[in-house]
Design a protein that fits this description.
By secondary structure, the chain is of the alpha+beta class. Helices cover 36% and strands 22% of the residues.
């Protein structure tokens, strides 16, 4: 099934064609690579295909049940955290849940709680539910998931133990007709 189709897509930049006549079909399950030299318009084409910008020529159509996510090559990320620690921020709710579980474990280990059966039972019920939710949301595997993602990007060798190297945003090189300060 065709999930995306582009017909005659083109873009102009400062009165010159950046690209013209782009035709493509994307089938369900397809894997596509877009390769070319810097400044040729790869990012611009992807932004058009994602629906972020309209084409100057042609059209892009999507199957009715398709939505497109787009991750810009320059996310604006500027962090003092390492890569691993930055990725951990995605799992903040799980980390909070894990801390709550540890706090409940400390309460359960307190001999004073065992003297109050109602409070003990209530704490155990909270802990049981929290542990169930934690497991259901991959709480015991999220750190391995991060390491797997980083390994997939071959980033692990640069991370040290937990990826302590800070992330710095790099400026994108100027495109056609631009200077480092903006448009020519």
């Amino acid at each position: 099934m065709i999930i995306m189709q582009a017909q005659g897509v083109g873009r102009t930049f400062n009165g010159s064609d950046l690209f013209t006549g782009i035709n493509l079909e994307v089938q369900t399950g397809a894997r596509i690579g877009l390769v070319g030299p810097n400044g040729i318009g790869k990012t611009t084409l992807l932004e058009i295909l994602a629906g972020l910008n309209p084409p100057d020529y042609g059209q892009v159509t999507l199957a009715h049940d398709i939505s497109i996510g787009y991750q810009a090559q320059d996310s604006g990320l500027d962090s003092e955290r390492g890569i691993f620690d930055e990725l951990l921020t995605v799992f903040a709710p799980l980390i909070a849940m894990e801390k709550r579980m540890h706090a409940l474990e400390a309460q359960i280990a307190d001999p004073a709680l065992a003297k109050d059966q109602v409070a003990f039972d209530q704490t155990m019920k909270q802990y049981d539910q929290l542990q169930h939710d934690f497991q259901e949301q991959n709480g015991y595997g999220y750190r391995a998931e991060i390491r797997g993602i980083l390994h997939g990007f071959n980033s692990g060798k640069h991370l040290g133990h937990e990826g302590r190297y800070p992330i710095r945003r790099r400026a994108r090189p100027p495109g056609p007709g631009q200077t480092a300060a903006g448009k020519a």
